[in-house]
């Protein structure tokens, strides 16, 4: 399909939107967040003034849901709420970095707990955390903390739980950013203590985006949930934590639904499914005699550079409408064929998530001592696929890369 001739028309409203106030740009910006996040350095611009928004009950296609917003939690209220708390953030990977720095910038008393002299320890020092002041080894941080934020990798949460569990004593709160460990406790062995609140706030994006959107004064969408409420205040605490780590909007869920939808989504449309679809389309084009550049442009470049941002900004109908009559006729006709072919795969995937197969696979794979080397080998294979080598050459031709 050649959507190039429609692109100018399609991008006109987008350009108008980008010229309008920041609050109206949010949807597009969220869609583009992951791309931009990669470009935002750790020591980037100072924190922008936070936008405030009203509380809302929103009608999502006929289903009314309360959406919690940080407008309910001005910074003074947030700081007052946590004034007697020490947040011990364990693990300083993608989420630890984003959530930790946002908490610190929000004036919350947060300390980091990681393995001494590991990669995370060094990263934390680079981000201004000071050993002995707000950077400790894991056990020491937990002992000082009242809210324990378990942001170790999911495999590490399971591995370290026998050691960590006895330290989560009555009066502390246990916080996760994924339902994985407690929901699949038969596999992870993360059986939470019965006398503490257990809450979750799961940002819907990378920790880099958690940080970059916060610095832009926006805020990532997150879901929050309560697994165990012993104080009667767990829900309020989960919402406050969500705001404190830099969320803009908070959607209520359960630990089960969060982990099922998350594992399902990342294996499906977000990553695995879309990669499979790219590969299938590209391979057929190549087998039918098309050049690598043509196959790549028609499969990935046009999608990511032109059409997907339009879906993100305005929705599928708008994107269809912005394309030629020929393109949209074909797209509408072929949608049900793809849906019918793919739905059984998605159902298999959901079953595999729900029955714990995906968790088992992930724990087994990611607990191997040489998992990083094995994973790097797989990444190298992907990097070396013709489609992605062609993509590298196509991207090199973009104006910003030819200066
Ligand atoms: N990444 C995302 O996009 C994302 C989004 C939403 C929610 N989440 C959830 O957030 C949580 C954290 O994920 P993440 O992606 O930020 O994790 P990550 O980047 O994989 O971070 C791993 C952290 O765990 C530490 N670690 C690994 N093995 C350890 C061990 N045996 N003992 C002690 N520390 C160990 C690492 O320390 P060293 O440097 O010392 O190895 C590092 O600080 C997970 O529950 C995840 O599902 C992630």
Explain what you see.
The chain has helices at 4-19, 26-39, 75-81, 94-105, 119-126, 138-144, 154-164, 180-183, 185-188, 207-215, 234-244, 255-267, 272-287, 292-314, 316-322, 325-354, 357-366, 371-383, 386-396, 399-402; strands at residues 56-60, 63-69, 87-90, 110-113, 135-136, 147-150, 173-176, 197-203, 220-228, 247-252. With 403 residues, the protein is α/β, with parallel strands linked by helices. A 10-stranded mixed β-sheet has the order 1-2-10-9-8-7-6-3-4-5, with helices on both faces. A hairpin with a 2-residue loop joins strand 1 and strand 2. Helix 13 packs antiparallel against helix 14 and helix 14 (292-314) crosses helix 19 (386-396). The longest helix has 30 residues, at 325-354. NADP nicotinamide-adenine-dinucleotide phosphate binds next to helix 4, helix 5, helix 7 and strand 8.
């Amino acid at each position: 399909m050649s959507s190039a001739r429609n692109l100018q028309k399609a991008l006109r409203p987008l350009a108008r939107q980008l010229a309008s106030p920041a609050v109206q740009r949010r949807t597009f910006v969220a869609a583009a967040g992951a791309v931009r996040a990669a470009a935002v350095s750790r020591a980037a611009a100072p924190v922008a003034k936070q936008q405030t928004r009203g509380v809302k009950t929103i009608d999502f296609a006929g289903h009314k849901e309360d959406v919690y917003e940080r407008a309910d939690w001005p910074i003074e209220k947030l700081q007052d709420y946590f004034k007697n708390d020490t947040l011990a953030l364990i693990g300083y990977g993608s989420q630890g970095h984003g959530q930790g720095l946002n908490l610190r910038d929000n004036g919350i008393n947060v300390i980091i707990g990681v393995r001494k002299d590991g990669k995370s320890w060094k990263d934390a020092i680079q981000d201004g955390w000071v050993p002995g002041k707000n950077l400790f080894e894991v056990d020491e941080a937990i002992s000082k903390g009242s809210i324990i934020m378990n942001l170790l990798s999911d495999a590490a949460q399971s591995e370290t739980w026998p050691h960590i569990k006895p330290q989560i004593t009555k009066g502390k709160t246990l916080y996760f950013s994924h339902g994985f460990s407690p929901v699949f406790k038969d596999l992870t062995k993360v059986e939470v203590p019965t006398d503490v609140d257990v809450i979750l706030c799961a940002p819907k994006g990378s920790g880099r985006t958690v940080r970059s959107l916060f610095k832009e004064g926006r805020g990532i969408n997150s879901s929050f949930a309560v697994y165990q409420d012993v104080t009667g205040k767990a829900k309020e605490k989960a919402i406050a934590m969500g705001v404190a780590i830099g969320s803009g909007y908070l959607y209520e869920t359960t630990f089960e639904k969060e982990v099922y939808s998350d594992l399902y989504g990342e294996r499906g449309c977000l990553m695995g499914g879309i990669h499979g679809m790219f590969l299938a389309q590209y391979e057929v084009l190549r087998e039918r005699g098309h050049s690598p550049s043509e196959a790549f442009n028609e499969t990935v470049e046009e999608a990511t550079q032109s059409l997907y941002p339009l879906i993100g900004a305005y929705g599928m109908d708008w994107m269809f409408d912005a394309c030629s009559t020929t393109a949209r006729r074909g797209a509408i006709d072929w949608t049900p064929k793809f849906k019918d072919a793919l739905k059984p795969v998605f159902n298999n995937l959901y079953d595999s998530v729900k029955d714990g197969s995906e968790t088992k696979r992930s724990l087994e794979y990611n607990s191997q001592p040489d998992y990083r080397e094995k994973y790097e080998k797989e990444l190298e294979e992907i990097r070396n696929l013709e489609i992605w080598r062609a993509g590298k050459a196509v991207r090199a031709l973009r104006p910003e890369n030819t200066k």
